[in-house]
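Supplementary Methods. Inverse-folding protocol.

Structures were first reduced to a discrete structure-token string of length 307. This string, shown here, constituted the complete conditioning input.
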């Protein structure tokens, strides 16, 4: 059984029990909608207008079921209290759209780091962030507050490999990042494109993914072919003495038992990279392929289970 994660991964349920009416939650108060301002550390930048209108319709009919989590704003005074959101910006925007004058809130102290962490946790648990927004929030926790990848992972209830893979997306060219944000490609497609080092080939692969509607697995295979073709000896004619051995290798691959192919497929799914299984009378060998130091690190962690 995996160890229990501590920190903010428990989410807002630790603050507000689900299903409890706001008026029955200790510490909940009403405040003017106009006295609440957005979380300056909010990692989410896109709110779907149609979904926001639907939520506003629901709030208009049923009220705001879950309070907003806020912290006193720097310009707050006793006579004119003002608050900054920690979590619940989508509900706050919908409440304004619904015409509410006041909203239920839970006030708690929070540092800028905690404001980012809590907003990130809520968005992750609601699957509201696109992969780039999530990656940027991880990077902000690391750059602004000096956290390591391990510390970020512990605070948001993720494993370190997930955080590392997300951060790698930020290395992609701008047009590929835009394709992720626009949902033209998935994070899986992007990770496959990342294995290709050359930016021109990355963009060519992006066009192929969009124009041909390639699956993630097809994109991975296309990326591997691009990497093979970029190797120094890729375009040279095969040596005559090698042609027989290569033909034999191709024939053996075609004659590979179905069970061995299935094993390779299972390994590939589990490790996220090309795996070859070679069998002989006395045993055999398993060959793992990797195309960057990051991929090697991911494979290592999946097999060994630690950094």
């Amino acid at each position: 059984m995996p160890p229990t994660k501590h920190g903010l991964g428990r989410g807002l349920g630790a603050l507000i029990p689900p299903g409890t009416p706001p008026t029955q939650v200790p510490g909940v108060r009403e405040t003017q909608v106009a006295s609440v301002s957005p979380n300056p550390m909010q990692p989410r930048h896109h709110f779907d207008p149609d979904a926001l209108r639907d939520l506003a319709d629901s709030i208009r009919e049923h009220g705001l079921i879950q309070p907003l989590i806020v912290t006193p704003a720097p310009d707050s005074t006793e006579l004119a209290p003002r608050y900054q959101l920690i979590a619940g910006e989508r509900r706050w925007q919908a409440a304004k759209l619904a015409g509410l004058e006041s909203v239920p809130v839970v006030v708690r102290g929070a540092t800028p780091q905690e404001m980012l962490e809590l907003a990130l946790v809520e968005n992750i648990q609601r699957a509201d962030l696109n992969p780039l927004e999530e990656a940027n929030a991880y990077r902000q926790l690391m750059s602004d507050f000096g956290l390591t990848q391990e510390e970020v992972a512990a605070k948001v209830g993720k494993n370190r490999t997930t955080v590392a893979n997300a951060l790698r997306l930020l290395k992609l060219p701008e047009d590929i990042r835009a394709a992720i944000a626009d949902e033209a490609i998935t994070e899986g497609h992007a990770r496959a494109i990342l294995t290709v080092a050359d930016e021109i080939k990355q963009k060519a692969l992006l066009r192929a993914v969009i124009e041909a509607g390639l699956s993630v697995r097809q994109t991975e295979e296309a990326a591997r072919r691009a990497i093979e073709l970029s190797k120094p000896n890729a375009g040279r004619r095969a040596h005559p003495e090698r042609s027989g051995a290569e033909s034999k290798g191709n024939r053996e691959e075609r004659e590979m038992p179905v069970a061995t192919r299935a094993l390779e497929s299972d390994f590939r799914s589990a490790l996220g990279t090309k795996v070859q299984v070679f069998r002989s009378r006395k045993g055999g060998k398993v060959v793992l392929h990797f195309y960057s130091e990051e991929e090697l690190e991911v494979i290592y962690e999946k097999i060994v289970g630690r950094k």
